[in-house]
Write a structure and sequence with these properties.
single chain, 445 residues, alpha+beta, four-stranded antiparallel β-sheet, 2 helices, 18% helix, EC 2.3.2.27, DNA repair, transferase
Length: 445
């Protein structure tokens, strides 16, 4: 029957289940091999990109250091020029020229960070043009604790809040790395590293005690430092994720470590050595970094008691110590000191590091808060140095020229100024002042 034969032909044209399975397995294994090949290629490209990033990061760090050294040479040249006969510039004993500029800081933007208050410190990330400010959680019911608010200085916009710690943040710092790793110290007994690329905490170190301050090593970005409530300095190596690698024990009183700064090694006549400048409520110590990651303490002669903050200016090797009012000095004082070193003996390679007061700046009679001030190179880049300090009595930040000692400006705020941060973005010089609620951003023009 013709009909039956056509049906048989159509039935025989349908592939058997075994054949279908064979084809599907062949197709799936082919797709799997293709997928694996693409994944291997992507992993290879990713590894190459990471390697390129590391090379560029290292190169960027080297260039930053070279820029700092060149700035130091320019400053030294300007100092030499200012000492020539007939030059109208005046210098004080610390050999800093005074600024001749007619320009000033003008208010550019006000960022309200926390309506509830309790902001405390801030830090600027040069590679990301980003300012971060510590604050309590804006949704404390859902996300308790403290973190930072990010602000883009390039486009003057604030972005999201990043939760980091369970208690108040006392210190924030960026190193010379190009990857935007934020170091933070808090009263919850932890030192943390947060990636601003992913807005997540990438490393936590338990210190065992409240942390009052922190800083990066600027000679080797693998090392970070934590200043504890008992005056100890804990040293951590980022390659060791478990614990500290060294502890620098306080030589005298066990006071809270209110400030930590790292002075990088530099071709400087006054102090070429690198190390940590540590400030407590009772005094200061420069921990000179020796070979093999050992440290040698040099006690600096500060006035006894009442020192609430020490800041450094690395290119000129100066530091700024801030003192509370006392019976003998009824006002807040910021004392500018030059850091120097002299050989221990003629034959010895060891040195004695010391600090020599060269200028004093006076503010108002009130100081109830632990605030942070600033010492930095003038935006004119003429070798002169500026000092900026908060004045609780007038709710302002006072700006002085370190060379002449003259008051240049009084930047008004609504509340006491807690922290001050100079920065440069796209060849524009800015200055940020922080109260417990807001940041004011000023532009040099």
């Amino acid at each position: 029957d013709p009909t039956d034969s056509s049906q048989q032909r159509s039935i025989s044209a349908i592939p058997s289940p075994e054949v279908c399975f064979f084809f599907s397995v062949s197709l799936s294994s082919s797709s799997l091999e293709k997928e694996q090949k693409l994944r291997r290629q992507a992993e290879l490209e990713s590894a190459q990109s990471r390697l390129q990033l590391q090379v560029l990061t290292d190169e960027c760090s080297k260039l930053r250091k070279q820029v700092q050294e060149l700035k130091a040479l320019v400053a030294q040249h300007n100092v030499s020029a200012s000492k020539q006969p007939g030059n109208s510039r005046t210098c004080f004993p610390g050999s800093l020229p005074s600024s001749q500029s007619q320009r000033k800081y003008h208010l550019e933007k006000v960022f309200v960070v926390s309506q509830a208050g309790n902001c405390r410190v801030m830090a600027y990330c040069d590679s990301l043009s980003c300012l971060v400010v510590s604050q309590p959680s804006p949704q404390s019911t859902f996300i308790p604790g403290c973190g930072v608010k990010m602000m883009s200085v390039a486009n003057l916009k604030s972005s999201q809040y990043i939760p980091i710690h369970s208690k108040q943040i006392r210190g924030l710092a960026f190193g010379s790395r190009a990857d935007g790793l934020l170091l933070s110290a808090a009263l919850d007994n932890t030192l943390k590293l947060t990636s601003l690329a992913t807005n997540t905490v990438v490393q936590t170190y338990n210190t065992g005690r409240p942390v009052w301050s922190c800083c990066w090593c600027l000679d080797d970005t693998n090392y970070i430092y934590a200043g504890l409530v008992n005056g100890s300095i804990m040293i951590y190596d980022l390659r060791d994720t478990n614990s500290h690698v060294q502890e620098l024990v306080p030589q005298k009183s066990r006071c809270p470590m209110v400030s930590l700064s790292y002075l990088p090694r530099m071709a400087s006549a006054s102090l070429p050595y690198g190390g940590i400048l540590a400030g407590t409520l009772e005094g200061a110590c420069f921990w000179e970094q020796k070979a093999g990651n050992s440290y040698r303490p040099h006690h600096l002669l500060l006035e006894p008691g009442g020192c609430i903050d020490i800041q450094t200016e690395s290119t000129t090797r100066h530091c700024l110590a801030t003192y509370r009012p006392s019976k003998s000095n009824p006002c807040v004082r910021c004392v500018l000191m030059e850091l120097t070193c002299t050989p221990l003996t003629e034959a010895s390679e060891d040195v004695v590091c010391s600090s020599n007061p060269v200028q004093t700046f006076s503010a108002g009679p009130t100081c109830k808060l632990l605030t942070k001030n600033a010492i930095f190179q003038s935006p004119e880049e003429d070798g002169s140095i500026f000092v900026c300090a908060g004045d609780e009595a007038s709710n302002s930040a006072m700006l002085w020229d370190a060379g002449s000692g003259s008051l240049l400006q009084k930047l008004q705020a609504d509340l006491p100024v807690l922290d001050i941060c100079p920065m440069e973005v796209n060849q524009t010089h800015l200055l940020a002042t922080l109260t417990e609620k807001a940041v004011k951003l000023y532009k040099w023009q």
